[in-house]
Design brief:
By secondary structure, the protein is of the alpha/beta class. It is built from twelve helices and 15 strands. The strands form three sheets. The protein has an eight-stranded parallel sheet. The structure holds iron/sulfur cluster (SF4).
Length: 345
């Protein structure tokens, strides 16, 4: 585990003990009611830090409106205009995403730092493969991992020069290998919390695969304090995807389903059964492993490893609990019987 400098974003402390899930509103910044509703929906879905684009002065009104309805921290995403950062700070924002190298002068950087220091607002430096500085791009010829880190560290030094170190860093690339390499390099060079993400990852299927590989690999290395899965989708889907990534890598609890791919031995509709079990467990918070296996060849073995499980037979299944056979159930009773046993766990 990396030695991370804890940075507080509202009530969330980014110190690696808990990996925070983030998302970003995709409602129009001038649609206050819609933005508030989406922020509330994200919080209800399990989002722990939410970000809103603040492209102009009128969008500042989003900050009090959203903060009134949610209890998770709100982040302002600001590009270029340091005055928006000052106004967001005054409006009660919990974190600002801004790259100090892009706001014009050290005087402006100092003004933003002063406003943030006064209110204990951290700053995320968000470097993106699509918007690297021209000079860095010219030096490296492409948005390589080294180029992303050099850009990020340049912004970091500007904040440090103002005696500011409540810093979070992201270096997002749409290329998974570059993203992994960039975060690994950065993790060796600084102790600030890292916000992980694959940028412009795509629509739900590929976006989830890219994010799972990129974010999952880094979390496995012990790198990353907060994550954002970027999908060309309703952001509520990002939360579900992020929760599943964290669950798979052992950073979140909840039910884990083990189900077999079925084969020529299967004699029950296992695909349907597994989907029904998955849907039924959607809102269950117990840390349980549920096995849904097609037959008695591998089935009982896997089912025994699980807290609860079934192994299919011909039009029926055997129900197991922690390695013990409970009883045989008819195919149509598999799901209700399994759920009834889960209730008892
Ligand atoms: S558990 Fe049985 S049905 Fe499922 S894939 Fe393995 S052998 Fe086939």
């Amino acid at each position: 585990m990396r030695n991370v400098k804890p940075v507080s974003v509202g009530s969330c402390t980014l110190d690696g003990k808990h990996i925070y899930i983030q998302s970003m509103l995709n409602t129009r910044s001038d649609d206050i009611a819609g933005s508030v509703a989406q922020a509330v929906a994200l919080e209800q879905a399990g989002c722990e830090i939410v970000r809103a684009a603040i492209p102009d002065k009128s969008a500042i009104a989003l900050i009090p409106a959203i903060k009134e309805k949610i209890s998770i921290p709100l982040v302002a995403d600001i590009h270029f205009d340091y005055r928006l950062a000052l106004e967001a700070a005054a409006a009660g924002i919990d974190k600002i995403r801004i790259n100090p190298g892009n706001i014009g002068s050290m005087e402006r950087v100092r003004a933003v730092v002063k406003a943030c220091q006064a209110r204990k607002i951290p700053i995320r430096i968000g470097v993106n493969s699509g918007s690297l500085e021209k000079e860095i791009l010219a030096k490296y010829g492409a948005p390589t991992a080294e180029a992303l880190v050099e850009s990020a560290m340049g912004h970091v030094r500007m904040l440090e020069a103002c005696d500011f170190n409540d810093i979070v860093i992201s270096m997002k690339s749409s290329d998974v290998n570059t993203m992994i390499e960039a975060y690994r390099l950065c993790a060796q060079q600084c102790h600030y919390p890292l916000h992980l993400g694959v940028t412009e990852a795509g629509t739900e299927r590929m976006g989830l695969i890219k994010s799972a590989i990129g974010i999952g690999t880094l979390l496995h290395d012990g790198i990353g304090e907060t994550i954002r899965v970027s999908l060309t989708e309703d952001p509520v889907r990002e939360i579900k995807a992020a929760q599943d990534i964290l669950k798979c890598i052992g950073k979140r609890g909840g039910p884990q389903i083990v189900s077999c791919p079925t084969c020529g031995r299967t004699r029950i509709d296992l695909v349907k059964t597994a989907k029904e079990v998955e849907a039924a467990l959607e809102h269950v918070e117990k840390d349980i492993k549920v096995a849904v296996m097609g037959c008695v060849v591998n089935g009982p073995g896997e089912a025994r490893e699980a807290d609860i499980g079934i192994a299919g037979g011909d039009g029926c299944a055997v129900l197991f609990r922690k390695g013990t056979v409970l009883r045989k159930v008819a195919e149509e009773e598999i799901v209700p019987e399994l759920l009834a046993e889960i209730e008892k766990l």
